[in-house]
Amino acid sequence: MDASSGLAAHAEHPPSPGSGETGDPHHHDAGHDHHELPFWRKYIISTDHKVIGIQYGISGLIFLFFGFSLMMLMRWQLAYPGQEIPLIGNLLGKMFGPGAVENGVMKAEFYNSLGAMHGTIMIFLGIVPIAFAAFGNFVVPLQIGAPDMTFPKINMASYQAFFCGGIVMLISFFVPGGAAKGGWTSYTPLAVLSDKGPTYDPFWNGQTLWLVGFILLITSSLLGAVNFIATIIQLRAKGMTWMRLPFFVWAQFVTAFLLLLAFPPLEAAVVMQLMDRVGGTSFFMPSGLVINGAPLHISGGGSPLLWQHLFWFLGHPEVYVLILPGMGIVAEIIANNTRKPLWGYKSLVFAALVLGFLSFIVWAHHMWLTGMGSVVSAFFQTTTMIISIPSVIILSAFFISLWGGSIRFNVPMLFATAFLPMFGIGGLTGIPLAFNSADLYLHDTYYVIAHFHYIVAPGTIFAVFAGIYFWFPKATGRRMNEFWGKVHFWPSLICMNIIFLPMFLQGMLGMHRRWYDGGHDWTLAGEKVWGLSGFQWNTPISIAAWVMGLAQLPFIINFFWSIWRGEKVNDNPWEATTLEWTAPSPPPHGNFAVEPSVYRGPYEYSLPGREADFTMQSEPMTESDRKAYEAAAAAGVH
Amino acid sequence: MEIPYTVTARPDTGLWNAKVGIWLFLASEVMLFGGLFSAYVFLRLDADPGSWPHGLLNVPVGTMNTGILIASSVTVVMAWASLKMRKFRAYWWYMLVTILCGVIFLAVKLVYEWPQKFDHFGAFIKKDKLEKYEQYLGNHHLAERGLAPRREITGHLHNKEALHDENAKEYEIALDPVNADPTNPEMDRPHFLYVPPTDKIATIEKEDVEYANMFLPKHSAYFASYFTITGLHGAHVLGGVIVFTYLWLPVGTKLYKRNPEHLANRVEVAGLFWHFVDLVWIFVFPLFYLL
Predict the structure, then answer these.
(1) Most B CBs within 10 Å: which of A192, A241, A281, as the mutation test of the B interface?
(2) CA angle, A260 as apex, A258 and A261 as ends, to 5°?
(3) pTM of the entire structure?
(4) Is residue B173 part of a domain?
(5) What is the pLDDT of residue A521?
(6) CB-CB under 8 Å, B36 with A150
(7) Residue A514, helix vs strand vs coil
(8) CATH of the domain at B65
(9) How far is residue A64's CA from residue A59's CA, in Å, rounded to a whole number?
(10) What's the confidence (pLDDT) of residue A525?
């Protein structure tokens, strides 16, 4: 309690004596139910937003590592095409059958499954559940001073739908023919025609299960999004006005709107593709298709491009679903560790809102090669250019926030600072792709892979790690180990760049993103960059990917070790200002014994006239504060 | 632990939680049906001239169903108003009528309209064989009048096994009036009232047929959209009926005794959903039945 002594709210909230898993959360409550819930009610089908957040987080991390493992397998095939997979080759053959891995050698169909499922799992089962659902669930109600989400039972249903969707996706690996192979975008007519035929089950096949899984995942995100928005609108604590919300809450608010409005058109598309596969309709099947020399016996009259439009109508807002929560996390951590207010809070908020709005009208820039007219292309090219403005505003505000701060480089801050240049590289390399003339050349090459991975992998995933290290003490009452955190951080950062930087080169050399031999034959052209041909770059990339897999071990061990053995800390170990740090660690069911009141903005660090260099949102105004604010207003700050 | 503002409104927003929730949910529903309707629009724009079917649905029955849904939207408001006036008996009756309206709507759809379509047959003739079936298609007559040509012969299929039997060489169809008498000017426009197939039989060689099927979703882009959208709409009606029944059963009575305002709020939220379902039908009806 040393750092936070003197805070009124803390007097009523002594820190929880036990650890996160064993502590009795009901020791201090006034007017709460006193009966102890059985284990399964408390941790399995809990309606407590914090438990649901942790459920989402743990499942998401497992899926994230699983999706990454698929990629580590693909990297073997890319670096050493046609060679036997060492150590686990035969085991994979036994697990997935000779149709997938024969004599330890990966087949093209299996490679395609891995590619499609890597994308699907990383985005929809990994990052969205962690960045949006896990952090949003755990942190947002605490940050706005709410006792829980507005609809706790719907919240629970959201997690259960997500869980079932994940299970369906996993099952699809083990049905005859294996998981979906049509890419994470499931472009038609390929996706409608794949996984069909005498060796496939009409329902239990990869692509159909992919669609069913998606319906469950979309249901989950719908329930979650409604809950988040309603919570932020309805359950803000007294005095928590809109412009006093932490930026993280704003980011989640905009993200929830994107999920709410962008996912349903994809649900419509998924239903239609399901009808095409199971009901024999032709929503996405054009007339006159000929397969293996025989005309396809379907009515035709559908439009393959219709799928692309509906898919990318989700797909592009989804990009901001992936990045906005990451930006929110980074904002919290930067303000906390520079010990000064976030620069340009209002411009950040409005930039996030503009970003959210514009993200709905840029989708066709994924479709430059489909032969759109020049007028349509010009429109989407222009909106795509415009949307870079709010992104740049946000990133610039973060960089300026670092200026002149006495920065504490703890593990969350390391990840948060690494986010900035990584996201910057990812964003700036996207600009050539936004020009349709440049994209004609770069489309579907490794350049595109490098571009969006720079945003999502060292961008959002680093933000996610930053958030885990940052809020871990709130969830468990213990801090994760700093040293092992750094052992996790540095190799991850270095490997990320060894993996993705050369991919820009490969892409500019013309290497196609779906070649399952990594461009082995194409290297005969013999063009070399920095001594290696495009294909030869695959080997260092793959090695870096496997090393990065190893580099996650310190994190996994640190995570579980710290739950039970980590250094015990007080309720506000980072000396932060937002409301979640006034609740006990871990917060009990209901979070706050008394509804907190808010008196000031979210980032009141180093307020003149105060002894401590942080002033919590729940601390009432004093005379010296008033003078400090007046002086700041006179000087034109804020 | 109590979640605040479940029954009473939050002063600064003027809303209770579920009302915010349902409007957000409806916003996402607009996007869901918007996606489906825009798919319908684009498929129809893409279709060859004259190939988009007309007049295959039963307009009077559809009109009746429209009326039933609109009536139920009125009764659900009455149910809510009765609760607000604390007249539980009236609420009970209005709710019952609402539920019955929903059930009748679904029954008409599932027991009458859909099966009637499943029993109907259509064969698209190959482009170079159209002349051979001129007596059923009447394309010369249509060309004279500047109308788009017909390519499909529809009616009641006598030898259903021909659909799957490789050895069967032809389809035997009891023709629909439009194909039985294609040069009759009355047939130039779709009929408002449903007209059953005639007893005039046509034999169509399978070789001359490009694609033939019962009026199932796979029959055409038109029926694909029709069954998908009305199916999803029907699922929404079913969802509404289940929620209304739950609120109408003794569960609702108990809640009424404990906190009548809470029940009124629930009915209001369910009613908003019901109005939305009604509104979707207001788009479905003209798009599929009339246009």
Answers:
(1) A281
(2) 70
(3) 0.93
(4) yes
(5) 77
(6) no
(7) coil
(8) 1.20.120.80
(9) 8
(10) 64
